[in-house]
Amino acid sequence: MVIAVALVQLAALVALNLLGRWISTALHLPLPGNVLGMLILFALLALRIVRLEWLEPTAGLFNRHLAFFFIPFVVGLLALPASLVQEHGLALLGILIVTAAAGVVATGGLANWLDREPERES
What we know:
This protein is mainly α. The chain is built from five helices and no strands. It folds into two domains: 1-64; 69-122. Helix 1 packs across helix 2 (33-46) and helix 1 crosses helix 3 (52-64). The longest helix has 34 residues, at 82-115. The relative contact order is 0.07. It is extended, with a radius of gyration of 19 Å.
């Protein structure tokens, strides 16, 4: 039963990803389909059409094992010609550091903004 629930949750996440990719392609949007799929998921959660509890176990599994998703990126970097790394290695490292920091700051800021308590009038 637990495996069936996990498969349904995974299917829902994949379906949202595919929907985002389809919309992005069909409308020729400059936004990647996977990002659009995440925005659709966010909208569904924010509008309470989808409850967090319905997807949280499987999404949490992906978050806990997020490092595995970077393996193809690292292998791709290792496959770069040595001359390219020698010539532009410092610039590549700087770009990686700046973009990673920007992602962390943006995610943290958005999470804090979404988690704040609304001001109540007394």
